[in-house]
Design brief:
The longest helix has 27 residues, at 915-941. It is built from 17 helices and 58 strands. The strands form 12 sheets. The protein has a 24-stranded parallel β-sheet, with no helix packed on it. A 5-stranded mixed β-sheet has the order 2-3-5-7-8, with no helix packed on it. A 4-stranded parallel β-sheet has the order 18-20-22-24. It is of the alpha/beta class. Helix content is 17%, strand content 21%. The chain crosses the membrane at residues 889-909.
């Protein structure tokens, strides 16, 4: 009985405990608020371990989502994580574009996420330093994106184990082919094992070379491939027939910049399921097929930048789904074939830079969905009427420029044509005689370029009313006037090279948003109106080559946003404004060819971004502006033909003028010694990088979104094409005054001619090995030409004429293989003129006025070896036989080895390799110098009668 009571009590207690457990396990409000870790602990731990091994790429903005992972929150709720809801396994990880960097080794914690189905690590700085990885542990992975990451192709063997993979992206910067030496067929064999591939992208791999065999190996087993991207993979040996092995299921094919050669069109156009085809920037030749039966699903076709010939076939405009056609920069000729069944889906057509002739077929204007049409730079003819254009109601961009036989007509009637979406229209270099006033109802028109035409007379306000133009280019016409009140909120206007007369246009209050104003090359005669100082957003003001007069307004120097002020070749007088403000954005100040007086304004030191200062051909009276040396961006300094005077400081700080490339102080009153220390600090004229690293760039800048105030971006977008503004100056090169319309940053010149400098030419000039033009003529220089000038390997023009220089012309000058102009006339040189190389091309004019010179090209012959200086006349007795032996062999090999020797020698001494050659020659040179020194010392110690 007692045991029964005990058992009943036990059951009651168990029931109570069970109820308590059930209640405690039910989700109360308090329990819902408490931390829960629903994802599996081992997966949560793996993610936290991975977080601890990653770093943020230096210089990146923003916070990587991995940094937001919080241990107290369920990892299934972390950003970038996807979990399988029923089982709470981590099945997806997306860390794309997160500025992360890490080495993913075999033991990486990522491989512990064994249920992973989708992984996206694209556009980070992940690298895979090991050959073996843990990819095989991801047995369920179906989506993998490693685009833009630092992996190599040892990964492909691991990836090939992923039997369930249906999407793979290995895009863009795939590295280390050459470094790893893994470029044999086994690489492609590994890829070919991935027979379930739907997408394969091996683009931008300069080290990958595909021939026919490798290409066929690559695509043979990829029977389910739908996307193939091989852009910038080198494929010059792949023949057209190889493309027949591509699966018919292929939808997306991109083979741009692959060095493909031949006619691939028939093979590719048989891929009937293609929706995207890109063959840009190859060497494809031949005409397009006259007829095709496939490509019924194609929506984008790009074959620009090739050598395609023949007519533009009509079927291109009849493909039922084609929306984008790009055939620009080819060799298409003849008229466009007649379009019988126009495709009403076509939106963008690019046929620029071909040789297409004839008129545009009228059915073309029934392609009502066209938004962009670019037929520029062809041979189109006929008349484009307003009625034709008005049918393209969706047209946004139309470029028909550079078709000299094409004209534009207003239809001869007053019709209110409507162009509801047109915002960019370019008819430059066509055959237009009148301003297209029919566009005045194009309310969305933002950019109109009708430059280089035959438009004459005045443009009235009524012709432009209704337009909301931001950019207007009327340059290179025959305009005599324009009503500025019809221009509205125009941001840039170009009126260069017209026949405008009288006063500068008075800017209305609506022009306060002006950014660029070009009115150079006209016949304007007024002063600059003070209203121009109200253009607070103005970046470029170009009033050059007019007859403007008066004083330059002081307030122009206060336009802090102004980057270029070009007032050259006018009649301005008085002083240059001394009002340049702190923080000025000025990069170019060109005042050449005026009547300005006084000194250079010291406020120019506030223009810390100044690159070009040209005040030549004025009446300025000042000393050398050494204080400009603090402007670290200054590249061009032209003071020519003024009244600058005094000596040039020879003790300027080493950080002065670090980027100066052009200095012209000719035709002034400078005096004293040439500043040797000044030449030492001109780092911009010396090689500071390997020759293959020097970029051919122009001095100037691009004016785009970053250069425009936000308020102006709202008024007028500059997204179609930025304005690439290049500076220009006049310099004297090779005896001629030339205008450098574009200034290459590698062009360097020093012109100190026409002054009163005396003393010797500094040896330091020979260190400026990027110098192309050196002019020290018309001074009072004495002494000899320093042999160091023979090191100016880039020198093209050397003018030392009209000085008091003496001695022999150094043989080292024959090393100047690019020298095309040499003027040593009117000095006191003597001896034999050096022979060979460029010296055989110079005429008598280079040497006249030097009575002591002899040899070619002068008629005066040299009569003995002492005059020629060709061979040593005296040696120490102990060296006579050796010297004679050496010269016999030198002369014997001269004829057959000249060209090869000069070429290899120049290369060797330019790059310093091979070092043993340079060292050998330098050792022999030191030996000859030693002989000469001993001989000179011996003769100096002899008595006069002994020497005689």
């Amino acid at each position: 009985m007692g045991s029964l009571i005990w058992f009943s009590q036990f059951l009651c207690l168990s029931f109570i405990l069970l109820q308590f457990r059930v209640r405690s396990s039910s989700p109360s409000q308090s329990s819902l608020d408490s931390p829960q870790h629903l994802c599996h602990p081992e997966e949560r731990s793996a993610l936290l371990d991975f977080k601890s091994t990653t770093n943020m790429v230096e210089g990146c903005l923003g916070t990587p989502i991995i940094q937001t992972w919080n241990e107290s929150i369920d990892c299934c709720l972390w950003e970038g994580i996807t979990c399988d809801k029923p089982k709470d396994h981590v099945i997806g990880l997306d860390l794309s574009r997160n500025c992360l960097e890490a080495n993913l080794t075999t033991n990486s914690s990522l491989f512990r996420l064994e249920k992973l189905q989708s992984l996206n690590l694209s556009h980070n700085n992940f690298s895979f330093p090991n050959i073996s990885f843990g990819f095989h542990r991801w047995k369920s992975l179906t989506y993998l994106n490693l685009s833009g990451t630092r992996f190599h192709f040892f990964l492909l063997f691991e990836i090939s184990m992923l039997s369930k993979l249906i999407s793979l992206a290995l895009v863009s910067q795939i590295l280390n082919f050459a470094e790893l030496g893994y470029m044999d067929g086994s690489l492609l064999f590994e890829i070919s094992l991935l027979s379930k591939f739907v997408s394969l992208d091996l683009s931008h791999n300069d080290g990958l070379l595909l021939d026919n065999i490798k290409f066929q190996m690559l695509v043979h087993n990829l029977t389910e491939l739908r996307f193939l991207i091989l852009d910038s993979v080198n494929m010059p040996l792949v023949v057209p027939s190889s493309l027949l092995n591509l699966t018919s299921s292929l939808e997306y094919l991109s083979l741009s910049d692959c060095n493909l050669q031949g006619n691939f069109f028939t093979s590719i156009f048989n891929l009937t399921n293609l929706t995207y085809l890109r063959l840009s920037s190859n060497k494809l030749i031949g005409p397009l097929p006259y007829n095709i039966s496939g490509l019924s699903f194609l929506y984008k076709l790009q074959m620009d930048n090739n050598f395609i010939t023949g007519h533009v076939p009509s079927w291109l405009f009849s493909l039922p789904f084609l929306s984008h056609l790009d055939l620009r920069n080819n060799r298409l000729t003849g008229p466009i074939d007649h379009v019988e069944m126009p495709n009403l889906i076509l939106q963008e057509v690019y046929l620029s830079n071909n040789e297409i002739s004839g008129s545009i077929p009228s059915p073309f204007f029934h392609l009502v969905n066209l938004t962009i049409v670019d037929f520029s730079s062809n041979n189109l003819s006929g008349t484009m009427t307003a009625n034709m254009l008005s049918k393209l109601v969706n047209l946004e961009i139309l470029d028909l420029s550079n078709n000299s036989l094409l004209s534009l007509s207003n239809d001869g009637t007053v019709v209110n044509y409507s162009f509801p979406n047109l915002w960019f229209l370019k008819f430059s270099s066509c055959n237009i005689h009148k301003f297209p006033s029919f566009l005045r109802k194009a309310e969305r028109l933002r950019e109109l370029d009708i430059s280089k035409n035959k438009i004459s007379g005045q443009i009235h306000k009524w012709e432009m009313e209704g337009m909301s133009l931001c950019r207007l280019n009327l340059s290179y016409n025959f305009l005599t006037g324009i009503d500025p009140f019809g221009l509205g909120n125009v941001v840039t206007i170009d009126l260069r090279s017209n026949l405008l007369q009288g006063s500068l246009p008075i800017l209305s209050t609506t022009w306060d948003s002006m950014i660029l104003l070009f009115i150079s090359g006209n016949n304007l005669t007024s002063e600059i109106p003070l209203s121009y100082c109200n253009l607070t957003f103005l970046r470029i003001l170009d009033l050059a080559n007019n007859s403007l007069g008066g004083k330059i307004p002081e307030c122009l120097g206060k336009l802090s946003n102004l980057t270029s002020l070009d007032l050259r070749m006018n009649k301005f007088h008085g002083r240059i404004p001394n009002s340049f403000v702190n923080g000025s954005q000025l990069r170019t100040l060109n005042l050449n060819g005026n009547q300005l007086e006084g000194i250079l304004p010291r406020s120019l030191v506030n223009c810390s971004k100044l690159e070009i200062l040209d005040v030549g051909n004025n009446n300025l009276n000042d000393t050398f502006p050494h204080w400009l040396g603090v402007l670290q961006s200054l590249k061009v300094l032209i003071l020519r033909s003024n009244q600058f005077h005094g000596a040039i400081n020879n003790s300027m700080p080493v950080f002065y003028f670090p980027h100066l490339r052009i200095i012209d102080v000719a035709q002034n009153d400078f005096m004293g010694l040439l500043p040797s220390n000044y030449f030492k600090i001109l780092k911009g004229m010396r090689v500071v990088a390997p020759a293959d690293k020097v970029k051919l760039e122009y001095i100037g800048y691009v004016l785009g979104h970053n250069n425009v105030k936000c308020v102006l971006v709202r008024i007028c977008s500059m997204s179609h094409h930025d304005i690439n503004y290049k500076d220009s100056v006049k310099v004297v090169v090779k005896r001629l005054e030339l205008e450098l319309v574009r200034i290459l940053t590698i062009f360097t010149t020093i012109d100190f001619s026409g002054n009163q400098f005396h003393g010797e030419i500094p040896e330091e000039l020979g260190e400026l090995n990027l110098l192309k033009v050196l002019n020290l003529s018309h001074n009072s220089l004495t002494g000899q030409i320093p042999s160091s000038l023979g090191k100016l390997a880039e020198l093209e023009s050397l003018d030392l004429s009209s000085n008091n220089l003496e001695g022999r012309i150094p043989e080292q000058l024959t090393n100047l293989i690019f020298l095309s102009v040499l003027n040593l006339s009117h000095n006191e040189f003597e001896g034999h003129i050096p022979e060979g190389r460029q010296f055989s091309t110079f005429s008598n004019d280079s040497y006249i006025g030097n009575s002591g010179l002899c040899g070619f090209p002068l008629t005066k012959k040299c009569h003995n070896e002492e005059e020629r200086g060709a061979l040593p006349s005296q040696f120490d007795e102990e060296d006579d036989s050796t010297a004679l032996f050496e010269w016999k062999f030198a002369l014997a090999g001269y004829g057959c080895g000249l060209v090869l020797g000069l070429s290899l020698g120049y290369i060797a001494f330019t790059i310093g390799k091979p070092w043993w050659v340079v060292k050998k020659v330098e050792k022999y040179q030191q030996k000859l110098v030693g002989r000469c020194n001993r001989r000179h010392k011996k003769r100096k110690t002899q008595k006069p009668n002994q020497r005689s």
